[in-house]
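Action item from last meeting closed. Structure (144 res):
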């Protein structure tokens, strides 16, 4: 399976990236904000939702992936403690709330009521797999 590379330039594109990042896991130390470059970068292990598995074959995969957002004017954290770099966070969704067009807020929602809010001039995000996949024994489960 080839490495995934996606770009989001609007809210609809961001929904596609969100779907591919659902259940990705990352540590606090894997979050880097570069205010002088107006960039936020996250390195994560994403679950490969796009891989098809067979009825009897359950070979699930994860891949190391980079997700970065451009034109980030500010970052607010809730439930993410920068003094605890080894804490693990599970990314559930990425949402966009429009402000004065084209600006707005991108919210990264994590399990355990944690979140990151990015104030952006406009939507510009890129997701890129960084290398080979590895097998994982379980598929994330969601309760209705």
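Sequence:
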């Amino acid at each position: 399976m080839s490495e995934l590379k996606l770009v989001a330039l609007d809210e609809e594109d961001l929904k596609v990236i969100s779907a591919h990042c659902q259940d990705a896991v990352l540590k606090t130390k894997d979050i880097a904000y570069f205010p002088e470059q107006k960039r936020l970068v996250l390195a994560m292990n994403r679950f490969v939702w796009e891989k098809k598995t067979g009825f009897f074959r359950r070979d699930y995969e994860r891949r190391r992936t980079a997700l970065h957002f451009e034109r980030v004017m500010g970052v607010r954290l809730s439930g993410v403690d920068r003094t605890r770099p080894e804490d693990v966070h599970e990314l559930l969704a990425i949402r966009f709330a429009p402000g004065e067009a084209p600006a707005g807020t991108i919210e990264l929602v994590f399990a355990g009521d944690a979140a990151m809010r990015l104030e952006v001039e406009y939507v510009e995000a890129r997701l890129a797999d960084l290398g080979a996949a590895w097998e994982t024994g379980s598929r994330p489960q969601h309760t209705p």
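Note appended to the action item: The first strand starts at residue 5 and ends at 8.
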